[in-house]
Design a protein that fits this description.
alpha/beta, Rossmann fold, 3 domains, three-stranded parallel β-sheet, 14 strands, 44% helix, globular, ATPase subunit of ABC transporter with duplicated ATPase domains
Length: 500
């Protein structure tokens, strides 16, 4: 546990062997399955099923089996015999790796995480960000690794998938290191808590479960405060006595001893814990615009033979609040990208209205340049804004001092979220498109985003699994994908948010 930027993601990277510590060593035994917060795969043309099976090497064996089958049907007798022998060896290898039962196990895990068979047959490039993350999670769980390192595993999962994951991790017999803001998941799975306290530059270890940790941490804070108050009271009395004795030459040494004792008293207790800084998250002051700054008609999108959605009409009025709902893969992110001009529809068109200014927040932070610094990303978003003003905005989002010179690529997920939101402040956007803006945020930062959602006066199109974000938005309309049905918002749709 720890606030965004405290080092949670960095710690898991070091444990997984994907980062080097400045000091100390990591010793491992047994297989480790690591789910990074922002997983990236090299070949997006790989089928989702093969990506999952690759965790045990089954994808390559099955590929060779298919080639051997083709060779067995050859007209050449030597080729047939060679591939028959090859097929037998591969079947033995397949058996060692778990055989076809393992393939069924992989499909079962994928299905439990909301990845139906039709999705498993698609290349990764055709999947949404949420679906690709589910594929990576399914791959890690299927791997059979003894120790699991999971960084925000519930991101992009619906309520049913989170419930299944909770039961899976609770029954996992190996080790588990998890970063999560899902308190129900933590309560069900952990028996030790490491709290990274950036203010005190320490890691507190609690050998208890989640609820006991919360109670013990509160008790520890009260104890530290009480011990510090007692030490300060005793030190004050010693210093007052030393002042009285210092006037007499014969008592000078005794006075010095009292001063040293007072310093030791204070050094032996921790200062009262500094309060965590809170980011003052806000959205931009929207530029003036016409009555309907954004419309779109007859939008459709397909990837190969897979139809994502068709004949979607959208009309965004000034100051309107719209939430987009649909299962993973229904095209929510794709619709936002098309409306934002980042992707072209197969049919239909997007029509900007008078004065339209769009601010787009991407769930995978693709709007950030990972190779440029925090300050350089802000300069790109506001080329006419002075560095002093950019630093002021960054400061309100908890980027100060040398933090602004960090490459965006080394930031934690929560820090990337804050930086992406900070760039929106410079946009003067009157239509905000927000794709899962509360993912990766600690509870305090999430609350700030919800307040910003509530107070923003421009139009918002929101994609989220977060019921609290929808409550803060107070939407007036809903778009249901893949059908593209638009309807007035009612509480009947609330139950769909966590499931979408």
């Amino acid at each position: 546990m720890g606030r965004n930027g405290a080092g949670k993601t960095t710690l898991t990277k070091v444990l997984a062997g994907e980062g080097l510590p400045a000091a100390g060593t990591v010793t491992t035994s047994g297989a480790i399955g690591y789910l990074p917060q922002d997983p990236r795969t090299g070949d997006l043309e790989v089928m989702a099923r093969d990506r999952i099976l690759s965790a045990r090497g089954l994808d390559e064996v099955m590929r060779k089996l298919r080639l051997a089958e083709q060779g067995m049907s050859s007209a050449d007798e030597k080729t047939r015999e060679k591939n028959v022998r090859r097929y037998g060896r591969l079947e033995d290898q397949m058996h060692v790796l778990g055989g076809y039962a393992a393939e069924a196990e992989a499909a079962s895990i994928a299905s439990s995480l909301g990845l139906p068979d039709r999705v498993l047959k698609q290349p990764l490039a055709t999947l949404s960000g949420g679906q690709r993350r589910r594929v990576e999670l399914a791959r890690i769980l299927f791997s059979g690794a003894e120790t699991l390192l999971l960084d925000e595993p519930t991101n992009h999962l619906d309520a049913d998938s989170i419930g299944w994951l909770r039961d899976f991790l609770r029954s996992h017999q190996g080790g588990l290191v998890i970063i999560s803001h899902d308190v129900d998941l933590l309560d069900a799975t952990v028996n030790k808590v490491l709290h990274l306290d950036a203010n005190r530059s320490v890691i507190d270890t609690y050998n208890v479960g989640w609820k006991a940790y919360l109670a013990q941490r509160e008790t520890d804070e009260k104890r530290r405060k009480r011990e510090r108050a007692n030490a300060e009271k005793q030190a004050s009395a010693l210093l007052q006595q030393a002042d009285k004795m210092r006037a007499k030459a014969t008592k000078a040494k005794a006075a010095q001893d009292m001063e040293r004792r007072a310093k030791r008293l204070l050094a032996g207790t921790e200062a009262e814990r500094a309060s965590d800084k809170v980011a003052k998250l806000r959205f931009p002051q929207p530029a003036p615009c016409g009555k309907t700054p954004l419309t779109a008609a007859e939008l459709s999108k397909s990837y190969g033979s897979l139809e994502v959605f068709t004949d979607v009409d959208v009309a965004i009025d000034r100051g309107s609040r719209v939430v987009v709902l649909g299962l993973n893969g229904a095209g929510k992110t794709t619709l936002l990208r098309i409306l934002g001009g980042l992707e072209q529809p197969d049919t239909g068109e997007v029509r900007p209205g008078h004065g339209l200014k769009i601010g787009y927040y991407a769930q995978e932070h693709e709007t950030l340049d990972a190779g440029r610094t925090v300050l350089e990303n802000m300069r790109s978003a506001g080329p006419d804004v002075t560095d002093a003003e950019l630093r002021k905005v960054l400061g309100s989002f908890l980027f100060s001092g040398d933090d602004v010179d960090k490459p965006a690529g080394v930031l934690s997920g929560g820090e990337k979220t804050r930086l992406a939101l900070a760039t929106l402040v410079l946009s003067s956007a009157n239509v905000l498109m927000l794709d899962e803006p509360t993912n990766n945020l600690d509870p305090v930062s999430r609350e700030q985003v919800l307040n910003a959602l509530h107070s923003y006066s421009g139009a918002i199109i929101l994609v989220t699994h977060d019921e609290g974000a929808v409550d803060a938005l107070a939407p007036d309309r809903v778009i249901l994908l893949p059908d593209g049905t638009e309807d007035a918002w009612s509480e009947e749709f609330s139950d769909l948010v966590a499931l979408a």
